[in-house]
Amino acid sequence: MTSLFDVTDNDDILALQPRLTDDDPGVRRIALIELADLEEPDGLQWLINRLAEDPIAEVRAEAARLLEAWEDSPVVEALCQALTDPSSAVQAAAAQSLSLLKSEAAGRVILPWTGHADSCVRIAAFRALRELRCPDAAAAAARALIDESASVRREAVGVLGWLKQLDALPALARLASADPDTEVRRAATGALGLASDAQVLPALRQALRDAAWQVREEAATTLGKVGHPDAGPALIDALDDDYWQVRLRATRSLGRLRFVPALDALIDTLSHRISNLRKEAALALGELNDPGAIAALQAAQDDGDPEVRKAVRIALSQLQ
Fold first, then answer.
1. What pLDDT was estimated at residue 196?
2. Over the stretch 167-216, which tens digit does the pLDDT of each residue have?
3. pTM for this model (two decimals)
4. In Å, how far are 124, 183, 218 from 199, measured between CA atoms?
5. Greatest CA separation found in the chain?
6. What are the chain's domains?
7. What is the 3-state secondary structure (H, E, C) of 138-202?
8. Which of 251, 297, 299 is nearest to 274 (CA)?
9. Cα–Cα distance, 210 to 175 (Å, whole number)
10. Which residue pairs from 142-150 have beta carbons closer than 8 angstroms and sit at least 24 positions apart in sequence?
11. Chain-centroid distance, C-alpha 118
């Protein structure tokens, strides 16, 4: 193997050589930090070598963390390789560094790792790809929607959502209603918000009746984002949900939709014992822009919670 010191003439890097090769792993780790602080391209190969070959997991993990600032293909490949390291600490450090990448070119290096036999590697690869908006990742993510690992399916949903893959909507709708994992259903329900028409309403209405309140909460939020008035009646029904978190999101979405038929139900919510719900109801009534809310809002001006009183003032300013 060619040593970094055989090819560099950088005095600062050469000055670190004794400590980078020290027998004490703590000395080597600190020297690696100093090497990374130099931000010299000549130092990359040494960091890559330590990530791959240092006998101490703590040093390898430090190298993985330090490589987060570089998006060169050899670095990205080395971090992907480190996902299979025997040490879970090294794997975690490599996964974290990969998740911070920003370039589409890095995504193309990561992409083959979405098919790795180890589900933990697949999870890390999809998580890293999620915000890179790499178009080539769409096909891999679509295939992963039937992965045996729920965590892989959840990360694949995230990739498709970030890519705004409209052709994935039927598959996402199936996951939202039928996946056995609550978090997958929740993620798929949220991803349906990438549509802006009625085609996703049946799946979202079904998700609003899911056994898990977290999925119902996500459905109530997503219906507001989709912005279709036909979602209004289902959201009114959700104001009676057993969980206040679902009722809060439904209240907020009814306001976003400016769904005037919800007027009476929102006025009733103005007197709910939970102040956050009263606040959201006041804001939603302001967004409805219906004078029928004025009397109820005026009566709520003396609410015991200052945040509710503030929301009431905002709502009344919209209506008067």
1. 74
2. 999 999 999 999 999 999 999 999 999 877 788 999 999 999 999 999 99
3. 0.86
4. 32, 23, 17
5. 82
6. 1-100 (1.25.10.10)
7. HHHHHHHHHCCCHHHHHHHHHHHHHHCCHHHHHHHHHHHHHCCCHHHHHHHHHHHHHCCCHHHHH
8. 251
9. 12
10. 142/168, 142/171, 144/114, 145/171, 145/172, 145/175, 147/119, 147/122, 148/119, 149/119, 149/122, 149/123, 150/179, 150/180, 150/181, 150/183, 150/184
11. 22
The answer to whether the beta carbons of residues 267 and 278 sit under 8 Å apart is: no
Buried b (16+ CB within 10 A) or exposed e, 260-299: eebbebbbebbebeeebbbbbbbbbbbbbebeebeebbee
Residues 320 and 314: their CA atoms lie apart, in Å, by 10
Sequence-distant (≥ 6) Cβ neighbours of residue 303 within 8 angstroms: 275, 278, 309, 312
How many alpha carbons fall within 13 Å on the CB side of residue 289? 5
Q: Which two tokens stand for residue 245?
A: 């978190």
Does residue 83 contact residue 113 with C-beta atoms inside 8 Å? Answer: yes
